[in-house]
Amino acid sequence: MSRFKNEVAHLQSHIRTLRIGVAALLLLALIMGGGWWSAPRDLTIHVPPDLRSGSSRKWWEVPPESIYAFTFYVFQQLNRWPSNGEADYARNLHALSPYFTPACRAFLQADYDYRRSTGELRQRVRGIYEIPGRGYGDNPTERVQVVSDRDWVVQLDISADEYHGSEQVKRALVRYPIKVVRLDVDPTRNPFGLALDCYDGAPQRIAVPTAEPSGNTGLNLRGVTP
User: Fold this and answer.
1) Helix-strand-coil split of the chain, %, nearest 5
2) Can you state the angle between helices 85-95 and 64-78, rounded to 10 degrees?
């Protein structure tokens, strides 16, 4: 009888061990399932525009060329007023708001309110573009200054044209120093994970060389009022 009792006790001990093992596996599966559920479904990877050569980088790093392209795109869209600056500027501020820091949105809203009160936006048509020869590829180290892995300063050399009706009222050549920060808080509305933090300093007028109309091949400098 003692032999049978020992065998029964052994089987019961083995069953308890199996139950503990099953419970441990179930707990491990729940932990792994929670980790899988909380893992991000999408990752934003910044690939350099020039793919003629290979590129190897950490997925969270943002290359300077991507910073420049993002900054110019958002800034150009902000300053595109196809029919009436009073309506277009306000619409752009609303549509592009995910791409600005809260402080920059407040600054731009104040700029809009001031321009509107002084009549600078009514029936204004505006567009900006890079000054030829002053894009990112012409001097990359000057165009994007890496402050940290979360902060950059981009120098945009821009020509801004404004029209009132069919008459051109302004052509300004200006360098805009624009701060860019990492702001990956709303991937749905801002998949880039970047935001403009407005200006790093006052925009500066650009003097460009122009040929004299008399046929003289010499150059002089002409300043353009913003």
Assistant:
1) 40, 25, 35
2) 140
- CA–CA separation, 49 and 64 (whole Å): 11
Q: What is the pLDDT of residue 223?
A: 35
Q: How many CB atoms lie within 10 A of CB 91?
A: 11
Task: Give the chain's domains with CATH numbers.
Answer: 64-223 (3.10.450.230)
Over residues 63-100, the pLDDT tens digits come to 888 899 999 999 999 999 999 999 999 999 999 999 99
Per-residue CA distances from 53 to 25, 47, 48, 50, 136 (Å) = 47, 11, 10, 7, 18
Cα three-residue angle 126-65-139, rounded to 5 degrees: 80
Tens digits of per-residue pLDDT, 164-188?
888 888 888 999 999 999 998 888 8
CA-angle at 200, arms to 220 and 148, nearest 5°: 120
Looking at the DSSP bridge assignments, the partners of residue 219 are 211
Cβ count within 10 A of residue 43: 9
Q: What is the pTM of this model?
A: 0.69
Residue with tokens 């050399």: 157
> 178 with 198: CB under 8 angstroms?
yes
Contact 207, 223 (CB under 8 A): yes
Q: What's the gap between Cα 5 and its chain centre?
A: 74
What's the rounded Cα separation, in Å, for the pair 131 and 152? 21
